[in-house]
Known about the structure:
The chain is mainly alpha-helical. The protein is 46% helix and 0% strand. The radius of gyration is 16 Å and the shape is globular.
Amino acid sequence: MKVMTPEHLAKLAAGRERARQEGASTVKSEGEIPLDLNERQKEQVKLVRRVAPKALGVLLKAFSGSRPAMIKSKCQECVNYEEMTSRIRNCETSGCGLWAGRPYQNDNDQDDGEQIKEE
Length: 119
């Protein structure tokens, strides 16, 4: 069992505080959905909560305007929320417009496309 260091606990606390100040990208309770989403987005939140709760935070962050989260969320949907990290990392669909910016790429991957950065 890993023991969390004081530095790690401080980073976790700082991250939670930052998320709280930014409007929090996670849904705390089962029935809670952010009110500023349109009906289609609310339906997507309900679906993801049911089939892949781990992907919910990324989806909400995407809906709040984060471009990297938008790409990651679409990639998660594309792999059907199954074995997300490995399937996205090993994605061979290079014809996809999001392929060059997909998450979980190995450091030694050589992509011709530009990496999309948070603005």
